[in-house]
Design goal:
By secondary structure, the chain is an alpha+beta fold. Helices cover about 25% and strands about 20% of the residues. The protein has 6 helices and 10 strands, in the order H-E-H-E-E-E-E-E-E-E-H-H-H-H-E-E. The strands form 3 sheets. Strands 1-6-7-5 form a 4-stranded antiparallel sheet. The protein has a 4-stranded antiparallel sheet with strand order 2-3-4-8. It is elongated and about 55 Å long.
């Protein structure tokens, strides 16, 4: 599933095509993706001007001058195609602007979603209301993380994947950040000292910033709207590298918890 850097890359690509544009066509080509598509989506978008694009966690946000915001999630395989030569079978939503630009939301597995709400209600949106802070924001630091982890005996990795603790992190970047910070992924969250959490926060910010700069990680179907694949995967420290040598010389291991693979170094991470 695309994580925060991949969604940020997608939003950045769409911003250069859509921001400031007048929508002349908004066409859902089916009634639902993972969830039903609002029946008034077409009416609310057609004739509106796109004021800005943004991101919350793994969701993209398209704001219009009608005080609406269209919220999209890429699911497992979703991607936006810019100015496609042909509309394909799995292009489930088409947006066209007055200047002739076309973007198509392609999602062959249909695990993504589209929604539209009043932009003034975005903080209360059903998926955002209890969501934790953005990891790249100034609001996220070691004190905030320590408070969120207080009394939590669950493994630190599981807590970092909890969107109520922190928004947008997924399996790839949690594995990478924990390795960078030298923290055992199965350590009890509440047992980690403030000093180690400070290192962890710095690692999270560093790995996300690097991944965004590289355009995200290529994983199965992910691609930016311009069709370019992300290249952060070549810089993975541990993710997907079971059996290979860590920088310390030890062998990277993999364990599976609740269906998720965790890659780690038993020497570096304690």
């Amino acid at each position: 599933m695309p994580e925060l850097p991949e969604v940020e890359t997608t939003v950045s690509g769409l911003r250069s095509v859509l921001e400031g544009e007048l929508i002349v066509r908004a066409e859902p080509r089916r009634a639902d993706l993972r969830w039903p598509i609002p029946p008034d989506l077409r009416q609310r978008l057609t004739g509106a001007r796109i004021e800005m694009l943004g991101r919350r966690a793994k969701y993209g946000l398209i704001y219009t001058d009608r005080q609406d915001v269209m919220i999209f999630h890429l699911g497992m395989s979703g991607r936006w195609r810019v100015d496609p030569a042909d509309i394909e079978k799995h292009d489930h939503f088409i947006l066209e602007t007055a200047s002739g630009r076309v973007v198509a939301l392609n999602d062959h597995r249909r695990f993504g979603s589209l929604d539209i709400i009043d932009s003034q209600q975005i903080d209360d949106y059903r998926f955002f209301a209890k969501m934790g802070p953005e990891p790249l924001s100034d609001a996220f630091d070691a004190s905030v993380l320590q408070k969120a982890l207080h009394g939590r005996k669950a493994p630190i990795k599981a807590m970092l994947l909890n969107q109520n603790v922190m928004a947008g992190l997924g399996n790839i970047y949690v594995c990478e950040a924990l390795h960078m910070a030298g923290i055992d992924p199965v350590a009890s969250a509440a047992s980690i000292s403030k000093a180690r959490l400070t290192r962890l926060v710095a690692a999270i910010k560093e790995v996300l910033t690097a991944a965004i700069a590289a355009g995200g990680s290529t994983l199965r179907d992910f691609a930016a709207p311009d069709g370019e694949l992300g290249y952060f995967a070549k810089d993975w420290r541990v993710y997907g590298r079971e059996g290979e040598a860590c920088t310390c010389g030890s062998i990277i291991l993999r364990r599976v918890d609740s269906g998720r693979s965790t890659f780690y170094c038993p020497k570096c991470q304690r």
